[in-house]
Design goal:
It contains no helices and 11 strands. Strands 2, 4, 5, 6, 9, 10 and 11 form a 7-stranded mixed sheet that branches. A 4-stranded antiparallel sheet has the order 1-3-8-7, with no helix packed on it.
Length: 124
């Protein structure tokens, strides 16, 4: 069992930056692929970015060039650096973990564990 706890959300003006963190429990963190998803009111949860255990990264087109995912296996933590935020980025952001055998990281069904989410609000 893996538990994920996100932090770092908040209210920021358009053009600003935030860093989200997700701390994972368990000794096998380094073997998991990690992802970030977001869900705006009235919308489905959507893929934002993911990072494999080997460091390969994937981004949704809507955040390419603005968001960066990274991981620190020594701290069992994955980070989401968000720059040049726009109001459309407003959502609850969820951290997720996928066991090593998972291959589909761009959809919610590709993940085994989820955090509780952290709210990000971007004002115009």
């Amino acid at each position: 069992q893996v538990q994920l706890v996100e932090s770092g959300g908040g209210l920021v003006q358009a053009g600003g930056s935030l860093r989200l963190s997700c701390v994972a429990s368990g000794r096998t963190f380094s073997t998991y692929a990690m992802g970030w998803f977001r869900q705006a009111p009235g919308k489905e949860r959507e893929f934002v970015t993911a990072i494999k255990s080997g460091g390969s990264t994937y981004y949704a087109d809507s955040v390419k060039g603005r968001f960066t995912i990274s991981r620190d296996s020594a701290k069992n933590t994955v980070f989401l650096y968000m720059n040049s935020l726009i109001p459309e980025d407003t959502a609850v952001y969820y951290c997720a973990a996928a066991m090593a055998f998972r291959t589909e990281l761009l959809t919610t069904t590709g993940y085994d564990y989820w955090g509780q989410g952290t709210q990000v609000t971007v004002s115009s």
